[in-house]
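Teaching assistant here, posting this on the class forum so everyone can see the example we discussed in section. The complex has four components, and the goal was to see what a joint structure prediction looks like when all of them are supplied at once.
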Amino acid sequence: MRDKLKNLKYVLKKFHEDNTVIKIDNLLIGEDFLMIAGPCSVESEKQIIEIAQSVKQAGGNMLRGGAYKPRSSPYSFQGLGETGLQYLKKAKEETGLPIITEILDVRDIDAIGQCADIFQIGTRNMQNFSLLKEMGKTKFPVLLKRGFAATIEEWLNCAEYILNEGNPNVILCERGIRTIETYTRNTLDLSAVAVLKKLTHLPVVVDPSHATGRKELVETMALCAIVAGCNGLEVEVHNYPEKAMSDSEQQIYVKDYVKLVKKVNILLSTVNKMEEV
Amino acid sequence: MRDKLKNLKYVLKKFHEDNTVIKIDNLLIGEDFLMIAGPCSVESEKQIIEIAQSVKQAGGNMLRGGAYKPRSSPYSFQGLGETGLQYLKKAKEETGLPIITEILDVRDIDAIGQCADIFQIGTRNMQNFSLLKEMGKTKFPVLLKRGFAATIEEWLNCAEYILNEGNPNVILCERGIRTIETYTRNTLDLSAVAVLKKLTHLPVVVDPSHATGRKELVETMALCAIVAGCNGLEVEVHNYPEKAMSDSEQQIYVKDYVKLVKKVNILLSTVNKMEEV
Amino acid sequence: MRDKLKNLKYVLKKFHEDNTVIKIDNLLIGEDFLMIAGPCSVESEKQIIEIAQSVKQAGGNMLRGGAYKPRSSPYSFQGLGETGLQYLKKAKEETGLPIITEILDVRDIDAIGQCADIFQIGTRNMQNFSLLKEMGKTKFPVLLKRGFAATIEEWLNCAEYILNEGNPNVILCERGIRTIETYTRNTLDLSAVAVLKKLTHLPVVVDPSHATGRKELVETMALCAIVAGCNGLEVEVHNYPEKAMSDSEQQIYVKDYVKLVKKVNILLSTVNKMEEV
Amino acid sequence: MRDKLKNLKYVLKKFHEDNTVIKIDNLLIGEDFLMIAGPCSVESEKQIIEIAQSVKQAGGNMLRGGAYKPRSSPYSFQGLGETGLQYLKKAKEETGLPIITEILDVRDIDAIGQCADIFQIGTRNMQNFSLLKEMGKTKFPVLLKRGFAATIEEWLNCAEYILNEGNPNVILCERGIRTIETYTRNTLDLSAVAVLKKLTHLPVVVDPSHATGRKELVETMALCAIVAGCNGLEVEVHNYPEKAMSDSEQQIYVKDYVKLVKKVNILLSTVNKMEEV
């Protein structure tokens, strides 16, 4: 076994025979295929409810939307904060979709806990060990994105930080790594998904939106991810991508999400068929 | 359009409405799905013929095998050279499979031309401009692997070198790039395949063996590549991987190749079906 | 000007004619050459006081020592926490050396503020925007390390986060980036220092210990950094490196620090002389 | 010892107690400090002679100039070829400066051998093993540039290819590696120089021009390289950089080269002084 995996006590398959399943309402993450969709940022009540309804109708089973936004520049839109959380709550009331949203600060756990079903830890905070430990002391499900320059082993150690504090509800999310290729925003590392499905019992989700940074590549990479063995997808969907307040290049149109869901379902049944060969 | 693509005159889709199709015997590369398989290195007459027969039987339609080997160390096995070419020729006579083998030196074009149907230019020679120009003056089909730290745009410019000299028969092969991840030998960049299928009319092949460097990941990544839109696969297959004289970690067993071919066929028909959505 | 620098309002030279000078006791950072030294972690009262005395005697002018340690594995030594802060305070009382120590959690600002003269924000927290904003609301000097996969432009934007909240006391610290080279722990990017000295009025410090991860390279890279134009060095020094509880490979012996300080002084005077050419 | 260095038989210090010294005319490379300067490309007889005279006068001791140019695009200036070699020969006759020029193709060895004192193997050809072996069969000194994504260990193995064929006259040249930083053309890896000076007896030269890709950084990085322990510098100098047919951004003015040489001399004497500490 590789060195950095030697001391792990929780996240590896050998410590947990069955795959981890996380129950949220009627959704069994790890068993049911997770279809997270929604805008990069919550921009208004109308916007998030409208998109939530579209996501629901298309067949998505979870709503994403950022209220606290980690932005490279201090002068970019920083999110609506607590107001954004309120809008997400309303969107859930309207549609019944569970909510995932990002946490940036340990002091926001309570506020976010009022509204979110899953806490997202973003790529820049993967090694924010204070945040990992604090989330480990709760039972809230955590979706832990891979650091954009983190190895698989470092990532598993970060998940271990959460489990080691007593919270077993961790989902890993591959979202691309920074490489010498600049045509795409990042390079989606699907081998990492295949590796993780061998190493760990935790569910693995793929985010093709941040990985590619380009609308026109999202569908193809989402479908590839299914063959790599992922347990779900997180896709940025907007009703008016060209007017989005952040990440406008990579959010897809609702009509394209509808199409994507259909293809996902076709492909999932083929993946099952192939397993019997 | 991105800067480095601006001056291209041949490889982009807009200069060549139809996808390039390269005919080798009865095989139409670009239309038929290309299934290249075989050992890293030609090691003996018996070895290459035996593997060729297995590849043929499994459903592969082209044989690979290195006679001239580019090795990091001068003290590693450097290939059988011209003798290796003779063995490849015999393997073709026995099985009818067309041959692909690597060229390292412009002075070997004639010798390799006696035996090979496709010349492979390896990752370390992607920007060996002398070799590119010289191959451009022939009509031999060339499979041009991506440099392990080359961008998509640099790669397309290298293909352009060949077309610009008059040889239109170029196939691109994604084989992984060097990144911060060390668990896999390289990081397979499937977004690059999706990007290329939008930008160029040239066929695109994927090599999951060098990309992952690990037997147990080859099948999964090969299947992902199909969904990314590739026109073929190049897979290292050996009858006794553990005894191979090079790359023993990444060559798969014949029985696993048999299984892979079956899954490829199932998946190809699903990909067609999804296109109708 | 490059895109990501366009919106900056504080950190660029054009907004602040004179170089920033930060006064700590009698030390004028930005004018006087800053010589930070000390162990990776505070391990005991005796250890930190002993090393502080050695650093002082050698000619160092600031003591480093981690009380809260960001470690890749949850099972590695996590630092002594508040007890460590107390030991640092005593070391200051004994030697008069000002203190720099790392902050991982916004909730520790007050505690650390009782003891530290400079707050260090580590490589993994460079884009911990909550922490940046919170430090921006204080007047405590902040040494902001470069993210190990961050560009110069992203780094300057993170400094801008702090200045934009009202705190002008920011020092940048280059500590190596993750690259394809694995012989060294990271790759020290001295061009970044040269670039920063052209772009920004903020002081720039170099940490050759984390950059190289190897004792035997620390002196040479520290001296190179001076020629690159840095305003100071942060060097890991231990009285018994081989027994250190963290980073034992890269901490240098006290006797080697003594030698380094002598060379630094010789070189600084040459750098001044060269400026007159 | 790290794995990839285990099988080496020639390039490591332990096989060759004294540092390698290569004699060219009166120049002892490895002992005398090598100051290579000249344009990226030979553009005309007048241009190269004029620059050669300036380089000589400034204190440079070797002239560079590309006759065969490896260009990313087939539509960029490809060099004057054999005519360029003739011009280099005349420049040598005029100034007495020995010549270094790049080889791209094994078939050009004889022609280049008529004119050049050192053969340069460029970054893209570092692992062109045919070329390495062929140069190993000659006695021509070879300056082997580091591949832009090659590790130190791979690089030493490439030097070993040349020595293993019988040619001991190899100089290594660090010229930057491709990283996540895009502000500079590459990232100059000066730790690699420090590492090489510990591992190998071969002379090590640094090229700050390709490393940075920016005129304004060349001087600073050249001086840093001296402190890192290099045995020489290769700097692109042009009489009219803004009109250069290639690399116009990174070639420095003659007047700046004059200044650089003065600073190099000051710094070299300080480096000697520091060794006595």
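For the discussion questions: The first strand of chain A starts at residue 22 and ends at 24. DSSP finds nine helices and eleven strands in chain A. Think about how each of these relates to the inputs above.
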